[in-house]
Amino acid sequence: MKFKLLLILLLFAQLTLSAQQRTYKQHGIRKVETTITNPRKPDRSFVLKQTFDKKGNLIEEIKTEGNGELVDHVTYTYEKYKKTATEKDNAGNIISKEITIKNKDGKTIETSSENFLKHSKEGRKYTYDKWGKLTVELWLNDKNKIERTKKYMYNAEGMLIQQVSLDDKNVIIFQKDIRYEN
Amino acid sequence: MRIKLRLILSLVFCVIVSSLFAQKKDAGISTNLGVSYKINTRNNIDFSQMSYFNNNASQLWFTFSDLSFNHKTNDHFSSEFHLRWVAHQLPNESFQQRQMGYYTAVFQFKIIPIGLNVDIKSRWQYSAIENHWNDSFKGPYFYHRFRINVEKPINYHFKASFNTEFFEPINRPTHAFVDQIRYTASLSYRKNKYWSFALSHQTMQQIGSKNPYLYTFVGLATHYTF
């Protein structure tokens, strides 16, 4: 009995990680360098360097062009249900910040992004029903006012059947209806 | 056509495997009506009413009402807390009352390369016959039940599964390690997120007795979730 329980607990510990986390953690991988070469369009070639922590979470991404010029430098920090992505320039100044908050089911419930160069800010909030389906998506402006609302409806089998977008005055600006047939 | 053939083959396979020890002493049917209320994605309350008819399905053997609270901790672990009230028909056609309380720890994982879902249940139960104020009171009886279930989803609507359950008595005077094994093969049909139905074939094999019983039951289950 004790042996059976121990086996189950060991299996459970491994299964709580994502597939990528498990792979990197198992191999002890902390850094990955990917080189994309586009012979037809050399200016689109780039090098992506990724760094991971001990748990297999991505903590830094540096993208440089073929000539070594920095394109993107993003660092990621993690709290329990919150991920913060911070983009910096060559001098280390913060260009933008994006915060993602997830619920216990691993679904995104809130995102907020701020661009310090463009002085813009926006946010989104997501609501799910008890079946785990996305039902409402709110787009918020820099004053935290609702700019747009997206509503999703599903049939009894959980398939999306309608998507409606509403403006800040709750007027329908877009509607998509989907019908399924066997 | 391909899906129908797979369904038929799955059902035949499940019935054959579960009937390997076909030394029939009794056969019957079981019925199950269940209702589940989803509080949210992680918690639900279940109620089910199940009845077993033995003697070649000619008489009611026992019926029970089961109330449970189920909590899903993550994709791989959930807990169930159950209370059960049983009415057991005796040979003199009177009914004996039994109560049961149990906790089940459920571990789930997928074998992705072959598309199988596996769950392992460890159930710790307490049961008693009649109540403490009655001279016929017997108990408490403690059991650990260990079940491995393998499930193959065929498509959105159909799933085939097979499970084996071991009954380990904790406080029986026989000190047996396992005193019963059950094999269950079933085919379930999910109409939509609210309704599902299942057809099952269950074999109950007693272990370690001088004259062990072997019962087989065909089960029909209906479940509504809201």
Runs of chain A in which pLDDT lies below 50 for 5 or more consecutive residues are none
Give the biggest sheet of chain B.
11 strands, mixed, barrel
Strand order within the widest sheet of chain A? 1-2-3-4-5-6-7-8-9-10-11-12
Beta-strand content estimate of chain A:
over 45%
State the share of residues found in helices of chain A, binned by percent: 10-25%
Radius of gyration of chain B: 18 Å
Give me the Rg of chain A, rounded: 21 Å
Q: Please give the number of β-strands of chain A.
A: 12
Q: What do you see in this structure?
A:
The complex is a heterodimer of chains A (182) and B (226). Chain A contains two helices and twelve strands, in the order H-H-E-E-E-E-E-E-E-E-E-E-E-E. In chain A, a hairpin with a 5-residue loop joins strand 10 (146-154) and strand 11. Chain A is globular. A twelve-stranded antiparallel sheet of chain A has the order 1-2-3-4-5-6-7-8-9-10-11-12, with no helix packed on it. With 182 residues, chain A is mainly beta. The radius of gyration of chain B is 18 Å and the shape is globular. Helices cover 8% and strands 65% of the residues of chain B. With 226 residues, chain B is mostly beta strands. Chain B has an eleven-stranded mixed beta barrel with strand order 1-2-3-4-5-6-7-8-9-10-11.
Question: Layout of SSEs?
Answer:
The complex is a heterodimer of chains A (182) and B (226).
Chain A: H1 2-15, H2 19-27, E1 31-36, E2 46-52, E3 58-65, E4 70-78, E5 82-88, E6 94-102, E7 108-115, E8 120-128, E9 134-140, E10 146-154, E11 160-166, E12 172-177
Antiparallel strand pairs in A: 1-2, 2-3, 3-4, 4-5, 5-6, 6-7, 7-8, 8-9, 9-10, 10-11, 11-12
Chain B: H1 2-18, E1 26-38, E2 43-54, E3 59-74, E4 77-89, E5 95-111, E6 116-129, E7 138-153, E8 158-169, E9 180-190, E10 195-206, E11 214-225
Parallel strand pairs in B: 1-11
Antiparallel strand pairs in B: 1-2, 2-3, 3-4, 4-5, 5-6, 6-7, 7-8, 8-9, 9-10, 10-11
